[in-house]
Amino acid sequence: MAEVKAAEISAILKQQLSGFEATASLDEVGTVLTVGDGIVRAYGLSNATVWRTCTI
Questions:
Q1: Is the pLDDT at 1 greater than 70, yes or no?
Q2: CA-to-CA distance for 8 and 43, rounded, in angstroms?
Q3: Which DSSP letter does residue 51 get?
Q4: How does DSSP classify residue 15?
Q5: Is residue 56 within 8 Å of 50, Cβ to Cβ?
Q6: Which of 24, 43, 44, 55 gives a 20 to 30 Å CA spacing to 15?
Q7: Cβ neighbours of residue 54 under 8 Å, at least 6 residues apart?
Q8: Is this structure's pTM higher than 0.70?
Q9: What is d(CA 19, CA 6) in angstroms, rounded to the nearest whole number?
Q10: How do beta strands 31-36 and 39-43 pair?
Q11: What is the dihedral of CA 40, 45, 49, 50, to 10 degrees?
């Protein structure tokens, strides 16, 4: 069985992680209570304000 060296493992990991880009996104999720005449009443969207367009 071949002997594995720590330096070799480290070099492989560095090579594989060199192009890694950590990204994150935050989505706000709420519950639709009622829908009618183009107006939606929703609960749980703390950042939504009056007259704000939300994607549903």
A1: no
A2: 54
A3: T
A4: H
A5: no
A6: 24
A7: 40, 42, 45, 48
A8: no
A9: 21
A10: antiparallel
A11: 20
